[in-house]
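Please fill in the sequence for the structure shown.

STRUCTURE ENCODING:
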């Protein structure tokens, strides 16, 4: 299995990415050590959160003008995949913060100052949809109420990017986004899942929280790239930013491959077989070759799309629909490849890999849970791309 080294990145971005990966490797033993507690408590431990913050992983999407890394999408795939080798939940929390920061930076300079005026290490979470949401117009803003579930990283977040209905005079409310201080929200513990338990994706609750006008944006403007920032990163539409979700999945699959190879290289015997070792079995050899190739295929598709998204963001206008749909297709295809690879590796490891204390089963649970995120649905991506290829512009999703 081949691990690309920041292919396609500009020299400065490649250096920053390599520095971050070295920082991740330095904290990886701690993240692994804290993973059991994160699994038990359904949230990252304070020690893991502190390590992520001090390593600069909560400033990946923060503008350089405020001391952040402002990393391109291709770089974040590399960094989050590296984090996931140690702890996929930690990687997911850092990735969600990056995506929320990327969107928040498009709100304008005053909103940027609110978020990062006192420093760049501002963790964020984000939920586009909510239940029982409302936004009551008041002077210079709105009062926001509602419940926002699946808020990954909400226990670490200083700010939340939340979907709200924006009132319009004489018309129905339109879908919008609001930047809300986490201190103005409460957390309801609702996250009890088989995988990605450490993400702490609980439910945020708001009750008449004031949000000023400069921290509100119509979702349609964000999705269409209207009135966005000058920096290319902040012109990437939300549909293409879903590609960032694949970094943690890629790292989780690579972790299972590494753990499997450690067992194979360590001379693990093959049960109920005349082969003295797993390594001697042609069936095992073939499964390893197939798994490695599937993981490589996923990585190559993701790298292709990430480089295309970053390049398109540097040009004026919006990328063609067929190009944006291909990004979603690449993500869906990569997700399917990674799941197939891990299935092969689980068979090589045998029934013992499902013991609760084994890292292999935790990474498997994490991968299978994260792969069901709605933005990574292979069938939906296939429908988007197929329509775009034949010139059918009817929308399949609000984010392409």
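FILLED IN BY: designer on duty
SEQUENCE:
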């Amino acid at each position: 299995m081949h691990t690309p080294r920041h292919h396609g990145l500009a020299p400065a971005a490649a250096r920053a990415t390599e520095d971050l990966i070295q920082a991740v490797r330095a904290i990886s033993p701690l993240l692994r050590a804290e993973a059991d507690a994160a699994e038990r408590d359904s949230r990252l431990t304070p020690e893991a959160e502190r390590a992520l913050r001090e390593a600069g992983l909560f400033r990946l999407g923060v503008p350089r003008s405020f001391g952040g890394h402002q990393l391109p999408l291709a770089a974040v795939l590399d960094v989050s995949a590296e984090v996931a080798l140690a702890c996929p939940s930690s990687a997911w929390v850092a990735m969600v913060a990056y995506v929320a920061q990327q969107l928040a930076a498009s709100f304008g300079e005053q909103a940027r100052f609110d978020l990062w005026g006192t420093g760049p290490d501002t963790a964020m979470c984000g939920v586009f949809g909510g239940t029982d949401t409302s936004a009551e117009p008041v002077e210079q803003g709105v009062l926001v109420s509602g419940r926002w579930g699946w808020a990954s990283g909400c226990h670490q977040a200083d700010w939340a990017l939340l979907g709200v209905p924006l009132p319009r005079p004489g018309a129905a409310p339109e879908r919008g986004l609001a930047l809300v201080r986490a201190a103005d929200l409460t957390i309801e513990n609702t996250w009890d899942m088989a995988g990605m338990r450490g993400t702490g994706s609980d439910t945020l609750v708001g009750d008449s929280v004031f949000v000023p006008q400069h921290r509100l944006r119509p979702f349609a403007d964000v999705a269409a790239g209207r009135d966005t920032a000058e920096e290319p990163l902040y012109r990437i539409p939300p549909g293409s930013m879903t590609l960032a979700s694949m970094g943690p999945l890629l790292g989780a699959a690579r972790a299972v491959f590494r753990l499997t190879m450690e067992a194979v290289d360590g001379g693990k015997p093959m049960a109920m077989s005349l082969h003295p070792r797993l390594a001697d079995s042609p069936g095992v050899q073939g499964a390893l070759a197939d798994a490695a190739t599937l993981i490589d295929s996923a990585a190559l598709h993701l790298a292709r799309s990430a480089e295309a998204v970053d390049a398109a963001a540097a040009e004026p206008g919006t990328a063609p629909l067929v190009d944006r749909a291909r990004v979603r297709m690449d993500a869906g295809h990569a997700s399917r490849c990674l799941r197939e690879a891990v299935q092969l590796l689980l068979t090589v490891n045998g029934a013992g890999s499902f013991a609760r204390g084994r890292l292999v089963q935790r990474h498997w649970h994490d991968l299978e849970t994260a792969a069901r995120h709605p933005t990574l649905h292979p069938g939906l991506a296939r429908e988007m791309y197929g329509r775009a290829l034949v010139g059918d512009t009817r929308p399949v999703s609000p984010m392409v």
